[in-house]
Design a protein that fits this description.
Blueprint: H1 3-15, H2 18-25, H3 29-43, E1 48-50, E2 55-57, H4 59-87, E3 93-97, H5 104-116, E4 122-126, H6 129-137, E5 143-147, E6 156-171, E7 181-183, E8 191-195, H7 201-213, E9 218-223, H8 226-234, E10 240-243, E11 252-259, E12 263-271, H9 278-289
């Protein structure tokens, strides 16, 4: 059974005349008749009563007609959607962003891509970095911006964007706010904010601090992303550990973690061998070319 056969039958059910139906379908009558007979054979029953002066649908034909019309309608919809996608200027950009990177870091780049590709549509997913890379492998995301992993799965392309140090985020009235920078021993007795994922950025920084002071500082509260972490700092539930490139709310201050000295590489990743839309390609090129001037140096 193929779509032309189904289309021929639907036309014939409307005009009930082989000659007129063949003409409307722009095929010869013998070819038209063979297609209808083939369809009947594949369906296992007569669809039409053939008489010299009158053609009628059989009961079986009347039962099959709405089902075959649904098949044709679905095929037409799929064809129209395929043509629409092929004619579009670009496919949507599906972007993954680490929960420990601030959106303002990529906002300007997205705006530039949107300005250059008017038909662009994008979605942003923010989840744990391991989840983001798994979604990349499943074809659910086009581009990922995050922190460089110790080991990168096969098939990934990765480009370095910039490096940034770690900072401690604290209220303006905190005793450590007057320090130019902070060292691990300053935090030994402090309440720090951990993260809900063991491999997340604050946990990585905490591991470095624990090695220096010989134990893990108190971390009764945990956050799932940088914004939540700063909200917890604002409410007095602990000191935040994050990247020096995070935007700092007016009521908080950021002090560089100068000992231990830690540095993190921010990267953009795609999957090797997978075709990219114009929007995804443009985003990666702009990200790699950006000066990243708003990522502050560590004091």
């Amino acid at each position: 059974m193929d779509l032309p056969q189904i289309g021929y039958f639907i036309v014939l059910s409307r005009v009930l005349n082989f000659t007129h139906a063949a003409r409307e379908c722009r095929v010869t009558q013998p070819a038209f008749s063979r297609s209808i007979k083939r369809l009947e054979w594949e369906l296992g029953g007569d669809l039409l009563l053939r008489e010299r002066s009158l053609t009628q649908l059989t009961e079986f034909g009347r039962s099959m007609l709405p089902l075959l019309e649904q098949v044709k309608a679905a095929a037409d919809l799929a064809r129209d959607e395929a043509r629409h996608l092929q004619s579009r200027d670009s496919a949507p950009l599906r972007l993954g962003l680490s929960p420990w990177l601030a959106f303002p870091l990529i906002g300007a780049i997205l705006s530039e891509v949107i300005a250059s590709i008017r038909s662009m549509e994008f979605t942003i997913a923010v989840e744990a970095e391991t989840v983001m890379r798994e979604r990349m492998l499943r074809g659910e995301l086009d581009v990922f911006v995050g922190l460089q992993a110790d080991t990168l799965p096969e098939r990934f392309n990765q480009w370095h964007l910039f490096s940034t140090g770690a900072s401690v985020f604290l209220p303006q009235n905190h005793r450590l706010a007057c320090e130019e920078s902070i060292i691990s021993t300053n935090l030994a007795e402090a309440t720090l904010l951990g993260a809900s994922e063991p491999e997340a950025l604050p946990e990585r920084i905490l591991s470095q601090i624990a090695r220096r002071v010989g134990r893990r500082p108190s971390t009764p509260h945990r956050a799932g992303n940088w914004e939540t972490s700063l909200q917890l700092v604002r409410t007095g539930l602990g000191l935040g550990l994050g990247l020096s490139c995070w935007p700092t709310p007016a009521e908080l201050v950021a002090r560089a973690l100068s000992e231990p000295v830690v540095e993190y590489d921010v990267v953009v990743e795609t999957l090797a061998g997978r075709p990219q839309s114009r929007a995804a390609t443009a985003f990666v090129k702009l990200a790699r070319a950006s000066a990243w001037t708003y990522a502050p140096d560590v004091p």
